[in-house]
Amino acid sequence: MRLDLAVSRVLSLPRRAAREAVRAGRIEVDGVMADEPGRDIPESAKITFHPSRPARYRVRTRLSILAEDDDFLIVDKPAGLLSVPTAEHEKDTLLARTLDYLHHRFGRRPAAFVVHRLDKDTSGSIVFARNRPALRFLQDLFRSHAIEREYLALVEGTVPDSGTFSADLVADRGSTRRGVARPGERGKWAVTRYRAIERLAGATLVSVELETGRTHQIRVHFAAGGHAVLGDRVYRNSRESGVESRESKTPEIPRQMLHARRLGFPHPRTGKPVRAEAPLPEDFVAVLEELRRRSKVKGQGSKVEDKKKAPRVAPGRSRNSRL
Fold it and tell me: For the domain that residue 179 is a member of, what is the CATH number?
């Protein structure tokens, strides 16, 4: 069981308060101070709370931590935030916030290495390595496609219960957009598997798993298949989508409705499974609920009959907090 969850249950504290107590060094497990909220502890462990103990450190940055230890840090990236700086040298990025968090948490010069990225307007789970051996290990996993990744997306129209896109992708189809390779054109192999979860008015909620990890892969594949990701302003109106805009059938979309929900891999040192799940952000939930409302009015919505495999997608509170 995660330490912060155990503290929350044993002491009847909100989850956020439990995490803060752990990070402040006010929690002992079997008589030993424990300050990593994501650490696994046995259910039989004795938890002791020292509320008057001075805090070891105070973290003053905003970041949602999904899992962490000495080798990696999995964080929940909000939509609208760059994963890393571009040539413009932006100061507020997910990497910058992660480094700031580590600096205030440990009081020394931090190290966080980029393993992979998400598009600026995509939300969800990202892992950073905290040392070079972990970086090489995780990069090898991504390179060999041995990472467990699940995305949730709202896409236009009605898709089959399940399917696979396996079209090769090219880096530039024009206007700096990527695209599907035409016959005889050389591209990079890309495979995207999806499963419909819920059919809505003019859209479908899908679970997506990547067999490869090309830039914009999900967005390009679904657009080329005639089911562009809702809110995608780059590929949604592409001629390759094969469909006309359905703006009148969908609510106002603040950004592309794509969320990196789950991330899993073996631990760099122990090999034990590591899994993190990012809750649906508020903007995604709002669009989903509006589509459900419209579906109910029109009598069109339906859950796909695969309840054993369908992930839980009920709206949940974001775990973003000021740490």
Answer: 3.30.2350.10
Q: Which residues contact 237 (CB under 8 A, 6 or more apart)?
A: 245
- What lies within 8 Å, CB to CB, of 47 at 6+ separation is 6, 7, 10, 11, 27, 28, 29
The reply to whether the predicted model has a pTM over 0.70 is: yes
Q: Which of 69, 100, 119, 232 is catalytic?
A: 119
* pLDDT above 70 as % of the chain: 85
**Letter for the amino acid at 180?**
V
Which amino acid is residue 53, in one-letter code? R
Helix, strand, coil abundance in the chain, percent, nearest 5? 25, 30, 50
Active-site residue flag, 119: yes
Domain limits for position 138: 57-303
Low-confidence residues of the chain, pLDDT below 50?
57-61, 238-248, 306-323
Whose tokens are 């122990």? That residue is: 270
What is the per-residue pLDDT for 311?
A: 46
d(CA 42, CA 228): 45
Mention every residue, 6+ apart, whose C-beta is less than 8 A from residue 183: none
Side chain identity at residue 294, one-letter code: R
Indicate whether 167 and 221 sit together in one domain. yes
CA–CA distances in Å: residue 305 to residues 152, 212, 221? 17, 27, 24
- H and E: helices and strands count for the chain: 6, 16
Q: Residue 42 sits in a domain of what CATH number?
A: 3.10.290.10
| Same domain assignment for residues 25 and 145 | no
